[in-house]
Amino acid sequence: MDSETMKLIAAAVAIGAGALGPGLGIGMLGYGAMQALGRNPEARGPIQTNMILAIAFCEAIAIYALIVAIMLIFIA
Q1: Residue 34 falls in which region: left (phi positive, over 0), alpha (psi -120 to 50) or beta
Q2: What whole-number distance in Å separates Cα of residue 21 and Cα of residue 34?
Q3: Tens digit of pLDDT for each residue in 17-67?
Q4: How many domains does the chain have?
Q5: Cα Rg of the chain (Å, integer)
Q6: Residue 22: how many CB atoms within 10 A of its CB?
Q7: 74, 12 in Cβ contact below 8 A?
Q8: In this predicted structure, what is the pLDDT of residue 1?
Q9: Which pLDDT does position 65 carry in this prediction?
């Protein structure tokens, strides 16, 4: 394999592995929020606020992985 192929494989692994964790985390956050809302519908506001904040932090990790993958393609 040549170096261009290796760069593309490295970028694919970087974004694949980097998006797996946040994807699972967001799924678990959504599940937990729905469970909490089912048990206590009156607490909708704080639950939703905390869920959205936690999802934003998870998405930041996926964006870092995307930036690393792009850097591997264009810079390395």
Answers
A1: alpha
A2: 20
A3: 999 999 999 999 999 999 999 999 999 999 999 999 999 999 999 999 999
A4: 1
A5: 17
A6: 20
A7: no
A8: 83
A9: 95
Two tokens, residue 3: 């170096």
pLDDT at 76: 77
Q: How many CB atoms lie within 10 A of CB 69?
A: 21
- Residues spanned by the domain of 14: 3-74
Distances in Å between the Cα of 10 and the Cα atoms of 50, 54, 59, 61 are 34, 28, 21, 18
Quote the pLDDT of residue 32.
96
Counted residue by residue, the chain has a size of: 76
CATH number at residue 29: 1.20.20.10
User: How is residue 66 written in tokens?
Assistant: 């995307």
